[in-house]
Write a structure and sequence with these properties.
Number of domains: 1
GO molecular function: G protein-coupled receptor activity; olfactory receptor activity
CATH class: Mainly Alpha
Subcellular location: Cell membrane; Membrane
Radius of gyration: 20 Å
Protein name: Olfactory receptor
InterPro entries: GPCR_Rhodpsn, GPCR_Rhodpsn_7TM, Olfact_rcpt, OR51/52/56-like
CATH topology: Rhopdopsin 7-helix transmembrane proteins
Low-confidence stretches: none
Helix content: over 70%
Mean pLDDT: 87
Largest sheet: none
Pfam family, one: 7tm_4
Length: 279
């Protein structure tokens, strides 16, 4: 899964970089998504492989905090990129004549910078607050990587402030992104249903299908992981570990496959590259 995620996302980035016809907002956001997936998978999966293959079950304290930072910061970034992609689909379908004037390269770059800064600034206090707290003697994290709630369970102190801040970040970041995505698709659905021909409606829905699949692949494991960590006290530990692994394994692997299969420009470039023969 790590190899597929790495090769797939690097391939998507290479195609977008080298094909100037793909230098459009949709593909710029897709490139941001690929970079985010590379960071997410690389921050967790090499250590997971080391645990499974070489039984290296220990992680250094500061390395654990760095892993917490990267997981949560870039999960926030991925959520923001999915929100930006939903806005791009809304403008492309509902305001097609103004798409190029609204989503200029400058606007796309600023939106990407805001999403990145939001993730870095909102998540940084996680590590700062945890690093100032005492840990119990039992320092075992019952899963394959350092996650904020899993690390908090090792703390021998009052963690209500940490819990409250974690909930604030979750609802202010993911909650606001999901609201924007939902409103965008309600507007898209309303516009598509008013299109005169069935072929036009089918084509409009087709342009959104890949994005909807990616949204489901990211938010469903994230939602289950969030709920089981905070409220699933009676959920078997093996289920919690499995869901936590799905959260960091599945989206980075599936995203390049989904866009590679469903996006004609990317699919054609991959096929051309595979079938290219030396003269």
């Amino acid at each position: 899964m790590y190899v597929v995620a790495t090769v797939g996302n690097i391939t998507v980035l290479h195609i977008i970089r080298t094909d100037h016809t793909l230098h459009e907002p949709m593909y710029f956001f897709l490139a941001m998504l690929a970079i985010t997936d590379l960071v997410l998978s690389t921050s967790t999966q090499p250590k997971m492989l080391a645990i499974l293959w070489f039984h290296t079950h220990e992680i250094e304290y500061h390395a654990c905090l760095i892993q917490v930072f990267f997981i949560h910061a870039f999960s926030s970034v991925e959520s923001g990129v999915l929100m930006a992609m939903a806005l791009d689909r809304y403008v492309a379908i509902c305001l097609p004549l103004r798409h190029s004037s609204i989503l200029t390269p400058s606007v796309v770059g600023k939106l990407g910078a805001v999403v990145m800064m939001r993730g870095l600034l909102w998540v940084s206090p996680f590590c700062f607050m945890v690093s100032r707290m005492p840990f119990c003697s039992n320092q075992i994290i019952p899963q394959s990587y350092c996650e904020h709630m899993a690390v908090l369970k090792l703390v021998c102190a009052d963690i209500r402030v940490n819990h409250a801040y974690g909930l604030f970040v979750a609802f202010s970041v993911v909650g606001s992104d999901m609201i924007v995505i939902s409103v965008s698709y309600v507007m898209i659905l309303r516009t598509v249903l008013w299109l005169p021909s069935g072929e036009a409606r089918l084509k409009a829905f087709g342009t959104c299908a890949s994005h909807i699949c990616v949204i489901l692949a990211f938010y469903i494991p994230a939602l289950f992981t969030f709920l089981t960590h905070r409220f699933g006290h009676h959920v078997p530990r093996v289920v919690q570990v499995l869901l936590a692994n799905f959260y960091v394994l599945v989206p980075p692997m599936l995203n390049p496959i989904i866009y590679g299969v469903r996006t004609k420009q990317i699919r054609d470039r991959v096929i051309q590259g595979c079938c290219k023969k030396d003269p």
